[in-house]
Amino acid sequence: MADANADVRRKIMGFIVSQAIHAVCELEIPERLAAGPATTAALAESAGADADALRRFLRVLAAEDLVTQEPGDTFALTPAGRLLCADEPGSLRHFAELMSGEAYVAWSRAAHSLRTGEAAFDAVYGSPYFDWLAGHPEEAEAFNRAQAGLVELRLLPLLEWSWGGAGTVVDVGGGNGVLMSALLAARPELKGVVFDLPHVVDEASRTLDAAGLGDRARCAGGDFFAGVPDGGDVYVLAQILHDWADDEAVAILRRCREAMPGDGVLLLLEQVVPEDGGPHPAKLLDLHMLVLLGGRERTAGEWEALLGRGGFGLAAAAQGPRSTLIEARPLHHGVTPGS
């Protein structure tokens, strides 16, 4: 019983770990340790931290295998801890920042979501999350940095998909253009369209120009509930539909179906929630989508049903290191997807 008590207490206090990670990242402690092991005194002096407080933060992170505690009051960064460095490939530094700001505050009202099935964020801040971001440019920039940091792993199954015959790809809800830039760099035969809200695609245009891809891609501003650009061979929704409840997600799918040709392809990059009782990151993300946006992650069966409502049939699914690539084809009367 004592072990169970300690285990449950640890789970209840899990937010302390996430906030400790954010605090040491804010003072760039991981970057300072990336150069080699250092004493808390030296770290504190260079970071402008209290040495005793820093030691206490780092010993918590040592228990999480993010640093190691060595003799002589010295700490060193572990391979996992390197993911907290901003310039590390696959860095989670900006994700830690994102999860410790307004999202963390919204979770203080998680019971609102439990009672109503609606986003707690709206109850705390008085408006939906993306509307709120539009009026808070610093937080919006933090959100974009976090999403860009997650693209590297998310993109892998998309790069491995067979692109034979495809000419133009439309990234619906393409944000700051990082995903499109990576895709076009890897697939020189493709041309691209980044579609998002007008104030968002301004940054996407700069991203594409900076990557030297301005001649192969264009940006279009609009509202994907009203319509999306036509003329694409492949339409991509990269972790867009999980932001929305089913009815809104179906509306987005239908706008894509209306825009694409009968032989077009829809590619979703999303999480698929296992239907067992074991732990899985998608189950945590599912709750986060509920609390922040009123959205949800979905099981394989739920994805298939959602696609059907939107005018698509599930053709294939490939699991990547972070997301699943779901391939869907337009439904035609009497025709089975993939036939």
Report on the structure:
With 339 residues, this protein is α/β, with parallel strands linked by helices. The protein has 2 domains: 2-85, Arc Repressor Mutant, subunit A; 156-330, Rossmann fold, CATH 3.40.50. The protein contains 16 helices and 10 strands. The strands form 2 sheets. The protein has a 7-stranded mixed β-sheet with strand order 6-5-4-7-8-10-9, sandwiched between helices. The protein is globular and about 70 Å long.
According to CATH, the homologous superfamily of the largest domain is Vaccinia Virus protein VP39
Tell how many strands the DSSP assignment holds. Answer: 10
Total helical elements = 16
What separation lies between the terminal Cα atoms? 57 Å
Give the helices and strands, then pairings.
Elements: H1 2-12, H2 14-26, H3 29-34, E1 38-39, H4 40-47, H5 51-63, E2 67-70, E3 74-77, H6 93-98, H7 102-106, H8 110-116, H9 120-125, H10 129-134, H11 137-160, E4 168-172, H12 178-186, E5 191-196, H13 198-210, E6 217-221, E7 234-238, H14 246-259, E8 265-270, H15 281-293, H16 300-310, E9 312-319, E10 324-330
Parallel strand pairs: 4-5, 4-7, 5-6, 7-8
Antiparallel strand pairs: 1-3, 2-3, 8-10, 9-10
